[in-house]
Automatic annotation (TrEMBL):
The active site is at residues 75, 214. PANTHER family: DIAMINOPIMELATE EPIMERASE (PTHR31689:SF0), DIAMINOPIMELATE EPIMERASE, CHLOROPLASTIC (PTHR31689). GO terms for molecular function: diaminopimelate epimerase activity. The record marks 159, 205 as: Could be important to modulate the pK values of the two catalytic cysteine residues. Its main location: cytoplasm. The lineage of its organism: Bacteria, Pseudomonadati, Pseudomonadota, Alphaproteobacteria, Acetobacterales. It comes from Acetobacter musti. Its EC number is 5.1.1.7. This is Diaminopimelate epimerase.
Length: 275
């Protein structure tokens, strides 16, 4: 049976969003991977499903899948996109979504253009324990025992941030994702601090490769920079696809503000893809 999907993006980090709140689809990882394929499927950096929330007050349970079929506990850019969809559906500008990483509240700012919104998501508390990331063994998450001494934390998904002068170092991303220090693999960020309130960031995403933007990676990079005393708690993060504003508030929650854009809608028959 053909199903409806939204194709959306946040700063070029792109998503297929499927609403299965009324009819659970139970797509297998192989099928998600096939649908996410850019040549043989619809193509996306993350495949996103909305199902019935189990937490009171949440509008949907939102799950994020990488093109390799693995599941991520958090995705900042997709959270903004889903919030804008649910806001259009309900008329609410403040809303809550449930993710594997926890409950997230979002504020959808009044749209200036059709199909494009600016959204702030409270991405919650960064978790800096070595078991939170997780790491394979106890180590200081402020300076991991790896060449370049990245800092690591969880935003609901694992991130390591390297502070570099030259973004060409990002070519180390693929090998670092698989480093034995990260039993669940990790998203690997390379941040160049350009001013106390500005950084340039590239992220090699676990299960997805380089993307034009990584919201949770931007949150992690700003928190890690502040923890290391390298920059302010509020920064503009420039990624390949544009800019996000990240603020690590006094209550330690991380607020992420950026765009959410609808590209197109369509229908697809999942049965036509390998199981
Ligand atoms: N693009 C996403 C992150 C996806 C993370 C995923 N690659 C993982 O395995 O954790 C973001 O905007 O936060």
């Amino acid at each position: 049976m053909p199903i409806h999907f939204h194709k959306m993006h946040g700063l070029g980090n792109d998503f297929v969003v499927i609403d299965e709140r009324n009819a659970p689809l139970r797509l297998s990882p192989a099928r998600i991977s096939a649908l996410a394929d850019r040549r043989r499927g619809i193509g996306c950096d993350q495949f996103v499903t909305l199902s019935q929330a189990t937490a009171p007050g949440a509008l949907a349970l939102v799950r994020f899948f990488n093109p390799d079929g693995s599941e991520a506990g958090a995705c900042g850019n997709a959270s903004r996109c889903v919030a804008s969809l649910l806001s259009a559906e309900t008329g609410q500008s403040d809303l809550t979504i449930q993710t594997r990483g926890g409950l997230l509240t979002a504020c959808v700012h009044p749209a200036k253009e059709e199909g494009r919104a600016t959204v702030t998501v409270d991405m919650g508390l960064p978790r800096t324990g070595w078991q939170d990331v997780p790491l394979a063994y106890a180590a200081d998450t402020l300076r991991l025992p790896l060449d370049g001494e990245p800092a690591a934390l969880s935003m609901g998904n694992p991130h390591a941030t390297f502070f570099v002068q030259d973004l060409a170092e990002a070519e180390r991303g693929p090998a670092l994702e698989m480093d034995p220090l990260f039993p669940d693999r990790a998203n690997i960020g390379f941040a160049r601090i350009d001013a106390s309130d500005r950084m340039r960031l590239r992220v090699w995403e676990r299960g997805a490769g380089f993307t034009l933007a990584c919201g949770s990676g931007a949150c992690a990079a700003v928190v890690n920079a502040a923890r290391r005393g390298l920059a302010d708690r509020r920064m503009t993060v420039e990624v390949d696809g544009g800019e996000m504003l990240i603020a690590w508030d006094d209550n330690d929650h991380v607020q992420m503000t950026g765009p959410a854009q609808l590209a197109f809608e369509g229908t697809v028959d999942p049965e036509a893809y390998p199981k």
